[in-house]
Amino acid sequence: MHQLISSFEGLQGKVKGINYLNDGVVLVDTTPNSLFDVVNFITRELKGIFTVIIGVDAREIDGSFHNIYVFSLDELKKYVLVRVMLEGSDPKVPSITPLIKGADWSEREIRDLLGIKFINHPDPRKLIVPESWHDGVFPLRKEVSYKLRAHGPYEPYQPRRSEDVIALPYGPYHPLLHEPEYFELHVKGETVIDIEYRGFHVHRGIEKLGEARLTINQIPFVAERICGICGYVHSVCYCQVIEGAAGIEVPERALYIRSLILEIERIHSHLLWLGVACHVLGFDTGFMHAWRIREPVMHLAELLTGNRKTYGINLVGGVRRDLKEEHIDKVIKVLNEVKEGYTKFINYLTGVREVIKRLEGSGLLPRTEAISYGVVGPVARASALKRDVRVDHPYAAYKDVYFKVPVYNDCDNMARLMVRVEEVFESIDIIKQLLDKLPKGPILAENVEVAEYREGFSAVEAPRGEDVHYVMTGKYSRVYRWKVRAPSYSNIPALKVMLHECPLSDAPLTIASIDPCFSCTDRLIVVDVNTGKRFKVPMRALAKGWRP
Amino acid sequence: MSLYKRSIWVFHLNTGGCNACDIEILDVLTPYHDVERFGIKLVASPRHADALLISGPVTREALPKVIDALLAVPEPKVVIAVGSCPISGGIWYDTYSTIGGLNELYRILKEEYGINEPLTVRIPGCPPRPEAIIHGVALALGIVKQKVKFNHIVIG
């Protein structure tokens, strides 16, 4: 720890102060002018990987906006938060996107929601709010009500129609992957050259809702609604932040129960993804088998949490529902059955030559690009980047269990599949170890009191990668600022690299291979660079080898 | 309530939901529940669909596309609202980036297009259980009878 602080001494005069937020998190204060030097130092000397930028409207506290740049130092097992204070009346800061490609979305998001100007940012378009949103209304500023719907007049959706365009008669929705998303693929002949993304159809204003209407102990239940697949991850991460900020000791048994349910969630999420990947390949038999194997895991989740979606058992300070002795045998029995069926299925799947041929060598993401975009989770591990929050920044009960982190060097879709396949086996193993060592005792901490204006930061390894939460607590047991960075937020921009020079028919599979959390595409616009023609093509047609 | 004599084809429309309802919808199609035995089938285009499965609170970004999809479903159509979000807007009923559920959507449809509210089956839950989703669709099909009648309750 002291080693890390002394390493900052080289930046004389550029760093204004260094503090510990909690055990594994270091907060460094600097000025907008020195930001480039500090960021360069962290990424080059300390091998920090960019995570996210957090914007805070702290004008009520000290009259300024805070921009917090988060970097993960995986080798030193620390997070470094670089805080820059910006003028309250006219906040502006140099953009770091030219240095770090992964910062693009974060900066555009803060510009949309907080109105901070990023000097020299390459992309002036809106990212989060609709195109018709009024300029000058920034939803996350404190004076703006969470109810203010400042979008322009309602205009019917007009798909681009011209003589060149074939507009298929369905909207940007597709039953293949279940969430509204919009990609534009630019192709030359059969090869993808570039990709445009327009998402955030699912932006529901959850951070503002948490800051405006909810109390600290209500937020875990809303945090679970961020994602229906890996919701428990968000509530655990949020609770850890508050517990860290307020110095609450969580009972051992509660930590074990949290880890247990996190692993159950990982198993069902990976099985779900495996099914969807088979579906995208046109291999529906695999889809049905994967979901058949998954169903007992859902029943297990219901047994342990009372809800099929692992909802509603977290509170700040512990969990609400204890694990009953008679359930332990049942859990082990079900897991053994799942493992048996799953092993059979994987042997069968990896023996299907067509599936393997489609997966191998497609969607390449080299290691250097993976670092530059700061990708997380299975996508990083498939690009020879050994990153796993469970090992790098241990939380809950992961310090007490042994498991392998699968890492592949192939950087392709097959590697991403194999990482997830192996992780399911590891998860089953982790659950057995946890049940074996499960300590006795209380499950909820007493005296949960949170002081005002405390900051906290925590990360959890979601099935899709590193999930990050930041909280600044406020008055009257509310939160002042709550920031969530879901794993897909880091992974989707890297698709630009994965899809470059990739055959068109591999595009849907590659997009699916990162397992985007606000699940993937619906339809693509294909632009032929040679002729400038535009076609609108459903994903399924693309997957079956559509030709322009 | 039986609008259809034979199989019902549904189109799934996520209007900005969290995925929980969506994976439960997928769940009912896969071997454990297997609704295809009732003739319920998920289709890729609203033009082929008899019914629209809506999940999510209808975000502003998705609204124009949702209306487009809704208008593309041929008559007679039925809307099946899955989960708390489309029914009432859920916890997001008044946040800045959503419109707050189906009622608001129907109001826009009435005002902008002069279209009356289509027949709607509402399946509450966050998320509803797969059995509840099957029950909701069966209700639209006329396989089961509705046991509880809609009732206006005015508070305050």
Question: Keywords, please?
Answer:
heterodimer; A: 548 residues; alpha+beta; Beta Polymerase, domain 2; Cytochrome-c3 Hydrogenase, chain B; 5-stranded mixed beta sheet; 4-stranded mixed beta sheet; 19 helices; globular; B: 156 residues; alpha/beta; Rossmann fold; 5-stranded parallel beta sheet; 5 helices; 31% helix
Describe the structure.
The complex is a heterodimer of chains A (548) and B (156). Chain A starts with a helix and ends in a 5-residue tail after the last helix. Chain A is of the alpha+beta class. Chain A has three domains: 2-119, NADH:ubiquinone oxidoreductase Nqo5 subunit (Beta Polymerase, domain 2); 182-202 and 492-543, no CATH class; 206-486, Cytochrome-c3 Hydrogenase, chain B. Chain A has helices spanning 2-7, 35-44, 59-62, 103-114, 206-212, 219-223, 231-246, 252-280, 284-305, 325-349, 353-359, 367-373, 377-381, 389-392, 413-437, 488-491, 495-498, 507-513, 539-543, and strands at 15-22, 25-30, 49-58, 64-73, 78-87, 92-94, 117-119, 182-188, 191-198, 314-315, 318-319, 455-462, 465-473, 479-485, 523-528, 534-538. In chain A, helix 8 (252-280) packs antiparallel against helix 9. With 156 residues, chain B is of the alpha/beta class. Chain B has a single domain, classed as Rossmann fold. Chain B has five helices and five strands. Chain B has a five-stranded parallel β-sheet with strand order 2-1-3-4-5, sandwiched between helices. The longest helix of chain B is centred in the C-terminal third of the chain and has 12 residues, at 102-113. Chain B starts with 7 loop residues before the first strand and ends in a 15-residue tail after the last helix. The chains are: A alpha+beta (548), B alpha/beta (156). Chains A and B meet through helix 5 and helix 9 of A and strand 1, helix 1 and helix 2 of B.
